[in-house]
Amino acid sequence: MRHAGRIPAEVVWRAAYRRWAPPAVDDLAPGYTVLMPVPSDLPVFLRLALANVTAQDATGRAEILVIPDRPNTSIAAAFEACRAESGADDLRLVELPRVGRTLGRLSRAKPGTNYFLQAHAGATAVTTTHAVLHDADLFLTDGHFLARHHQRCAERGLACLGVSPAWDDWLREHGYDHVVATWELMFDVRWMRSFQPWRHRWHSGWLDGQWHGFDVTLYPQARTRPDLCELHPDAEGSLVHFNWVIGVYRNFQRSHGRPMEDDRFTMLLIRLLTDALEPAQGGPPVPIDVPGADELVRGLTDPSRPVTYRDEQTGANYAAFRARLRRLYHAPLFDERAVEVIEQRLTSFDAAFG
Question: How many domains in the chain?
Fold first, then answer.
């Protein structure tokens, strides 16, 4: 029974995110902005994402907005170090507003909530007609992809141009198969702001005669004309995506040491990248909430470890993980030393699943 006088959480969210702040859509300049949501406590992903994007053809790009999921001095220092390392002059650090930080804490920092808050903060700060949501765990292997992605979206007058179909099968079953996933989503900012901000957040909405839970941006897309949402036809060969890395990491932090099956090798990926690519300029190792490489190896045989690799499906997923990792070696920041560190760390996993 609901406590008398308590305001439902959904009402609070709708009130806090009922309208967009300026600038007005009439003041948007041609071009696109990269929105880069990053985990504040995994600086390696900030380095990788910035190196990846700054290596792209910059045609049409106005700014790169780095949006941490929580403010702290560490991420600010990492941002300045990355700015110096990359030499890029089009970077801007965007912090979540106070109301977002408060609601995020009250929601126990769920990954989907964090992502909405970051996407909203970025879309509010954009000064261009278009923006792209760049996932920190997505790596572009084609140096001209973002320029083509923006050009196609703008020239075809699209609201959304994605690289993958939306994960939600309900949408396809109910005739909304035009809806695309958020990762590397290029969108028209005027379209984004034509919906109340809370509509882009995960929420339960009424559509096709029933209630359904819609993930970030999916409800507005479903309510958009199908011809205004497309998939980029040559995206598949232009990127490597590990999917939901940050969400899995946050869920692991919330597990408080209870054994978690790392069935898609997400925690292993974070440890490999951190060991191989951090710190940037020497110095002590970066502390992260991921077991060390030796501890992860123990999870191959010991079901009591915080991270385990025991399920049959986990073994079946290893070949695909290995193939994506090898493609990743061609991305910026990877040199012979980094590849050597990763390959050495994977010796036991290759033996177990090879």
Answer: 2
Examine the domain organization and report whether 37 and 110 are in the same domain. yes
Shared domain check, 266 and 292: yes
Q: What are phi and psi of 333, to 5 degrees?
A: 85, -20
Distances (CA, A) of 327 to 144, 193, 208, 236, 265: 17, 36, 41, 13, 16
In 10 A of CB 353, how many CB atoms? Answer: 18
Q: Which residue, chain included where needed, has tokens 């919330």?
A: 254
Place of tokens 């209870």: 258
Residue finishing a domain among 238, 266, 291 = 238
The verdict on 297 and 263 lying in the same domain is: yes
List the chain pLDDT tens, one digit each, 354 residues: 444 455 678 889 999 999 998 766 778 999 999 999 999 888 888 988 998 999 999 999 999 999 999 888 888 888 998 888 888 889 999 999 999 999 888 887 778 899 999 999 999 999 999 999 999 899 998 999 999 999 999 999 999 999 999 999 999 999 999 999 999 999 999 999 999 999 999 999 999 999 999 999 999 999 999 999 999 998 988 999 998 898 899 889 888 879 999 999 999 999 999 999 875 555 556 678 899 999 999 999 999 999 999 999 999 999 999 999 999 998 888 899 999 999 999 999 999 998
In a domain, 278, yes or no: yes
Structural domain range at position 115: 9-238
Query: Is 145 found in the same domain as 22?
Result: yes
